[in-house]
Amino acid sequence: MAELDAWYKEPPTNQNAASFYMKAFAAINLTNADYKSPLLPWLGKAEVVPGKPFAPEFSSALEDVLRRNAAVIKFCEQGARFEWSRYPIQLTNATTPLPHLRDLKNASKVLALRGLSLANSGDGKAACENLIETLLLIRSLEREPLGISQIVRSGCFDYALKELEEIVNRVSIPEQSRQDLEDVLDRMEKEDADGVHYMRALTGDRIMWNEFFKMSLADQTVIFWDGGPDRTRGEMEALLEKNPRSDDLQLINRGLDEIQARWLQPYPARLTVSEICSARAREATNLNYLLSAYVFDGANMVDTSVNAEARGVASLRLAQTALALERYRIAHHDSYPQLLSDLVPEYLPKPVLDPFTGKPLQYRRVGKGYVLQDAVPRSDKLDRWESKKRNSLEFAVIKPPTAAAR
């Protein structure tokens, strides 16, 4: 565990982005009313129709949240100036707490709301800079060598994609700002498509799981027993005592060797990690190996990680494609192309593929705008923001802005 802790290196003094982000997290001022609000998107229960004018009550609620969280925004701006980050966690045992993950999600939502506000005001440059700050906040987790940290990081790309959707529906982005945003997206997409951060996290999780077998039976029971009615704590301890530790650990490491080899494959072949997880989970269940059954179960970390990574890559690729579409629109008298293939090679070097299927993203013109989707079949309904039950990704421009960017 000490080796893992040393692997997650501390940046030089006064150059740790996380030190500023932790100040931002401490300044978060959100209430239960915010989370239940029928007016607030992302934080609350509301959905934003891209480009729809603000109602007075929505403007009031938005301004209130941003006012209460002005310090969050300030510290996130400061943290975005630094390249490297390490959060103050001690990776010296298998139960280290990670409270910064919840706070980072909330801070990402606050920044996304600020981006919406800036775009609505017509300030394309400031809105784009804010989106870059959202992405850099999310990026601050990329070197954290734990699967749950990477899952949270990938999940936050949803907020960044929605923030970009609101920006391009409301205001034009200046060329230099767009280039800066593309540079950030390109780096993040390449590293996630290469599996860099999840491979590091998988190694970290392997160390954690191996450490579990060195713990006392009492400490193992604390981790495994969920307090539920299915079994008592004593029954859980008895099961763990009977668990063949050496054989269980051997199955975990054998399965993880297979998974790490498969993770080196490009998408969509990488997603067959799920098949390895299923096979090893069945084997563990048949042999009554408790921890390996937990590790490889489809609802747990490894299987969730490979799908979260793919969804994050899909979000980044939709964002890259949306910016390419904006460059095309500006060069073609406010008109989008009829086909995505029209973007290649001038605006995109090659067709953009959905990591889940290996097929090109779906695209269709709708009025003066368009709908961009991953390659999963679905209804042609444009009003997808009316439904809260959507697992696939979609990016819609209803009517592109024609005003000059500020």
| Helix/strand class | mainly alpha
Uncertain residue segments = 377-390
Number of domains: 2
Placed side by side, the strands forming the largest sheet appear as 1-2-3
Instruction: Report Rg.
Output: 23 Å
The biggest sheet amounts to: 3 strands, antiparallel
The global form is globular
Number of strands: 3
Helix content: 55-70%
Which H/E pattern describes the elements? HHHHHHHHHHHHHHHHEEE
Strand residue percentage: under 5%
Distance between the termini: 51 Å
Count the DSSP helices: 16
What's the mean pLDDT score?
Answer: 90
Tell me the layout of helices and strands.
Blueprint: H1 2-7, H2 17-26, H3 32-36, H4 56-68, H5 70-79, H6 100-120, H7 124-139, H8 147-170, H9 175-193, H10 196-212, H11 217-224, H12 233-242, H13 245-263, H14 273-287, H15 290-296, H16 301-331, E1 362-366, E2 369-373, E3 394-397
Antiparallel strand pairs: 1-2, 2-3
Helix pairs in contact: 2-5, 2-6, 4-6, 6-7, 6-8, 7-8, 7-9, 8-10, 8-16, 9-16, 10-13, 11-12, 13-14, 13-15, 14-15
Structure report:
The protein has 406 residues and is mainly α. The protein has 2 domains: 2-193 and 308-397, no CATH class; 199-299, no CATH class. The protein contains 16 helices and 3 strands. It has helices spanning 2-7, 17-26, 32-36, 56-68, 70-79, 100-120, 124-139, 147-170, 175-193, 196-212, 217-224, 233-242, 245-263, 273-287, 290-296, 301-331, and strands at residues 362-366, 369-373, 394-397. Strands 1-2-3 form a 3-stranded antiparallel β-sheet. Helix 7 (124-139) runs antiparallel to helix 8 (147-170). The longest helix is centred in the last third of the chain and has 31 residues, at 301-331. The N and C termini lie far apart (51 Å). The model is unreliable at 377-390 (pLDDT under 50).
